[in-house]
Design a protein that fits this description.
With 118 residues, the chain is α+β, with helices and mostly antiparallel strands. It contains three helices and five strands.
Length: 118
């Protein structure tokens, strides 16, 4: 499972109980670093796994559902949540942390649950 660090502000918004205030997308820079991590999590392998992932997204619009773990911090006992997401490529929303005019790997959060404290 892919574990992604996330700032407290965004972590709290993802777990927000009020659906109107909940953050429904999380963003990662559209680059090789994040591409490799998403490709691996989705089972794309080989020398050009990132290219294969990006091509799949371009032809299908988004990936199949997969699970990520968001961790607010880097220690083993940091607050965590697991989310079912799909992945696309595109711009994000400024109110959810995206910069205008920038393309991202967009994680569309379908379902989320906070993990019990360790």
């Amino acid at each position: 499972m892919l574990t992604l660090p996330i700032r407290k502000k965004w972590f709290d918004m993802i777990l927000e109980e009020d659906k109107d205030k909940r953050k429904k997308e999380e963003y990662r820079t559209l680059n090789e670093y994040w591409g490799k991590r998403f490709a691996t999590a989705l089972g794309f392998t080989g020398k050009d796994a990132v290219g294969a992932l990006n091509k799949y997204i371009q032809s299908h619009g988004q990936t199949e559902e997969f699970t990520v773990r968001y961790r607010n911090g880097y220690s083993g006992n940091s607050p965590t949540a697991e989310a079912k997401v799909t992945l696309s490529i595109g711009p994000g929303k400024e109110e959810w942390g995206a910069e205008p005019g920038v393309q991202y790997y967009v994680q569309h959060i379908l379902e989320v649950r906070q993990m019990a404290d360790r």
